[in-house]
């Protein structure tokens, strides 16, 4: 008989619903057996969309963890409880796929890594979805093959479509700020393309509030550019924005000594172009989900396979802490206006080492 | 309890394997319960990939049809037996998803339609995969919305990557020829975008053997251009090729009185571009599967949903006969060198009606 | 002292003005010394824009030919007098750059070639502007270098922006029809890329009047597709249109046994792209002038250099007759609805030679 | 009789030759009457290419200034003498078109502005060629029209093709550094798109030597990213590189509150694309001249017209000083590793004003 991974989903908000449905319908080797949410509205949704397919529902996450036979948990709740729920799952001997970031705090993020390191038989992964996107993988493979020589400069941006509802202002209170919330993906890409051991030498950043001045109440901005220098002579620079007019514009370029590989330089929704009296135009993805939906499906399937076959995960959990560390430093550099310096051990120092 | 469609797969060759796996793994509302193939090698594959998941295997298609509870069949065998197997399934009260074409013969294709019309409670669909592709659907929607005015000219091509193995020569013996095998998709698109009732007025075609002269033994060509005139003042023209260097190039443009909508004008494999001393380049899909994989998944899911919910299929079976009729006429026009004319009832006439 | 070519311009209409200014301002080695037009309005324009720069003006073309020191003539008058004026210039010992087509009649076109062949010391060229376009030249060079193997199929289109003024109806009376007026460029490209000696085997064509039914009064159409078969196993197919919504769409693809080279697959006005809530869009050239302005400048300069240095012209005059022959055959095939066949000597025959 | 501007060219190196030929051959309203160079090799070239067309040659710039009737000078000599020659020309009552930068020193640049301000009847322009490029102008017009709302973030890069000869090392000694030499164009674009009065608040920058470590001898780098914050809530960030594999990659994006306008997001040499077994590829410009040749021609023509018609120049000379000021600050920030802050009057301050 075929073995399938019994998994539960923690959180049924925007991302939780997606992860739950991915494990239910698009991950053949997994079986969604449980889901939890403290929110009655979310549970109501689950009664229609999950329960009829054999998924047990819980209001209490801790109760779910006790379900007989549960092998793994996907943590897709609010960022504030990611770490706590991940650690509880680890302690309950469950494999964990945790949505990014582990936490907006470096220390809390580290605590998840510490918990996981005590249970090396468990698979614990932070869901950096772009690592599962076919285009990013192809780009990475091309780099690894040597097609661009030594990668030296990385430009990457995570730019959301303008949401005029003001959602981002409330969201900013808990998001960790634009560099931790958006640029975390770009930072993770830098660590993937430059190597997980890349040590930062300095960060500087500037930000503005072009459309949403109220973001300043939460020390946040709606457009920000960050500049990261690594000790081995590499540069990464990031742009994050909340005000794209056309849609989601997540672009990455890696410039090497012999070539350049780029992903999504001109965003596009599909393969259609329309010609009319305004010219020739293409629509673009409206959200990160439009852009990365299939990456999330691949993530669910590969996490499942890694657990079932006890194989190595595609990347290590430690990087998730390093990404938050860089994101938080950029956020601080932006808010304080100061450039921040590090020594080769990762400790802060007062000034640049030339 | 949730109802799932019990379906069997006839044929486990190149396409059969894909359909079987799609219904097994990527169609949550369907349950692949059976598969048949007369080929021992194919059955061996199925023992590894299907049987462990509860799929019963048959050497004899007729036996499979008798399986208790079987509700539907996907016919993905050799083209030569499509019609026979589809009709048997219909007569056995099964819903049918039949790979294109129903047959390379107009009459045989019509016999499937006739069989289906006697069982209006059954869902019988010919698998024109492009109808399920998101880009084609978006293009069709844009046209329907009026963005291009009245559609007037359609250009469409199905161009395969050069396969230097000579496979296409052997294949040509049974394929019906390049217009029936390749352009059938483009013809179906013309019927979709111009309307299923479009009546052909004339067809002309030319073909060459640029890389594979042996194709002439089977009255076939490796590059062909066909020109179809419709009675309501519309034109469709098609290009089919077996010798693309870069990969699969399936492009379609619909030109209307107020605009143009185009699909896949410049093919692309993914969102990656590579810059090196040769310039900036993108890879393109190597096969129709690279290009249309997700369309086949959607096809399986929508066919399943239509059966389970007893809803209308997205398009009628009759069009599949009309597509073969036009494809066969183009093939004949190419081989004979003659332009072929029709009256408004679809009968052949000797000369153009001006 | 530096020698400059003394040239006169016949005709000061839309194209005449452009040629006159090109020779006046953008052809350093030429000196525009004369211009003629029977039209008082055009002469009035010339008094402001040409006369102050030393250009003598004539109402009578024959008078201009007598101007002391005149060495060459650019014939940019109405198509109906192209041939007559070109022949007169040749007979008056002038070098000639004649706008396309030499004539809408094959016989009249041939008469220019005959006149020129009696004066082999004169440079007589028909202005197929695309031969001077850098992109077409680069494409041709890539083909010649062997990058696409043996060129086998050529697709080319000349598609004008919709002009709702009805201009094209009046124009159609003298234009020779859409295949002679528009597709002549694409036909010339086929002769350039496939070789000047390519012999046609058959032509077929269909046309519609999607926006301008009155064109039928002049046996013309607003959208037409033509299919040309050559004796050496090559195919060219052409699309011409008068109703593009976005602007001028002149696209060409040459498919070879080892690759494809394409020009202007997605038209663009410049290097700008605009992102707004409709997506990402680019404007495209509105007219052939927007697209080919620099090609006309190169044409003027290269014609001038060929005369001054007595070097071979970039292509032979004979091709201009062959292009009209093919264009006229396509027009006839479209209007009569009949496929037209030729033997290898270029004579018409009744049916296809298989 | 038609008046033409009598102009002399100072310097006949790489850029001098180009300016000389542009004024000689491609600027109908100008007359190149003189050219000077201290270099015998350059003068030898001029004897062949300029003298036969009536251009007087000088070894001594001061002598050229005395030529009877000379009205204007294009200063295209080595950067080190730009300012001196420009000031001498101004004092000799000549109009001046001076290649960028006026000087690598802010003070010296300012001295040209001071000299010019004493002669308001003279036209003195610094040649920021991108201001004359049709794509940049179209982008600026689209912004001015309001299509992107309020411009807020500008990304711009000037990236040269890798020159493995080591030329850039020697060049770096006098170039002012990568930010003054390359990014000066991007900085000028920021001043153009954000407004000439934009006041900088802070600059930070990092640079690496990925291919040419010897550049450090001259305090320069081969890849650098700079970040500029303006007082009115705008951000500009720049990337400059000497190691592009495919060619010249000069890209600019202006992100506004309602849209984005971008120039040259994917560079291209022309309209050709080649498909082969590597995919679909386009070549790109190899040098800034490939990309901006026509902009230099327009520059020459518009400067000429402004002088002849005594009209305002398209932009003010003062901006050239501001651009050098920002470029030099970026260079200093890169070399020192320090972030540099300014108050609203442009004075340096110790720390960020929040």
From TrEMBL, chains A, B, C, D:
Reply yes or no: does the keyword Oxidoreductase apply.
Answer: yes
One Gene Ontology cellular component:
cytoplasm
Identify the InterPro entries for this entry: Gfo/Idh/MocA-like_OxRdtase_N (IPR000683), GFO_IDH_MocA-like_dom (IPR055170), NAD(P)-bd_dom_sf (IPR036291)
State any GO BP term from the record: NADPH regeneration
Q: Where is the Gfo/Idh/MocA-like oxidoreductase N-terminal domain?
A: 6-125
Q: Which residues form the GFO/IDH/MocA-like oxidoreductase domain?
A: 136-261
Which keywords describe this protein according to UniProt? Oxidoreductase
Per the record, the domain of life is Eukaryota
Q: Is Oxidoreductase there in the keyword field?
A: yes
Q: Which family does it belong to?
A: Belongs to the Gfo/Idh/MocA family.
Q: What is this protein called?
A: NAD binding Rossmann fold oxidoreductase
């Amino acid at each position: 008989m075929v073995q399938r991974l019994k998994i539960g989903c923690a959180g049924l908000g925007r991302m939780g619903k997606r992860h739950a449905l991915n494990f239910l319908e698009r991950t053949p080797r997994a079986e969604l057996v449980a889901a939890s949410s403290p929110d009655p509205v979310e549970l109501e949704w689950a009664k229609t969309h999950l329960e009829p397919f054999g998924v047990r529902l819980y209001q209490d996450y801790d109760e779910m963890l006790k379900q007989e036979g549960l092998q793994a948990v996907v943590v897709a709740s609010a960022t504030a409880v990611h770490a706590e729920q991940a650690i509880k799952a680890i302690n309950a001997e469950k494999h964990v796929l945790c949505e990014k970031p582990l936490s907006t705090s470096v220390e809390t993020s580290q605590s998840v890594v510490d918990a996981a390191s005590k249970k090396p038989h468990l698979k614990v992964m932070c869901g950096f979805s772009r690592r599962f996107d076919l285009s990013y993988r192809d780009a990475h493979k091309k780099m690894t093959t040597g097609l661009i020589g030594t990668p030296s400069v990385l430009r990457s941006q995570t730019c959301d479509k303008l949401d005029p509802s003001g959602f981002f202002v409330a969201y900013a209170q808990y998001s960790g700020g634009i560099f931790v919330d958006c640029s975390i993906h770009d930072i993770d890409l830098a660590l993937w393309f430059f190597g997980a051991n890349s040590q930062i030498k300095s960060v500087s950043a500037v930000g503005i509030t072009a459309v949403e001045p109220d973001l300043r109440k939460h020390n946040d901005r709606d457009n920000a550019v960050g500049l990261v220098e690594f000790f081995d002579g590499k540069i990464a620079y990031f742009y994050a924005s909340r005000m794209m007019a056309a849609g989601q514009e997540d672009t990455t370029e890696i410039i090497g000594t012999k070539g350049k590989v780029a992903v999504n330089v001109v965003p596009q929704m599909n393969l259609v172009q329309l010609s009319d009296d305004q010219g020739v135009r293409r629509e673009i993805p409206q959200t990160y989900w439009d852009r990365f939906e299939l990456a999330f499906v691949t993530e669910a399937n590969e996490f499942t396979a890694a657990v079932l076959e006890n194989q190595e995960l595609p990347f290590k959990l430690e990087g998730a802490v390093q990404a938050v560390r860089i994101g938080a430093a950029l956020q601080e550099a932006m808010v304080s206006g100061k450039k921040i310096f590090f020594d080769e051990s990762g400790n802060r120092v007062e000034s640049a080492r030339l």
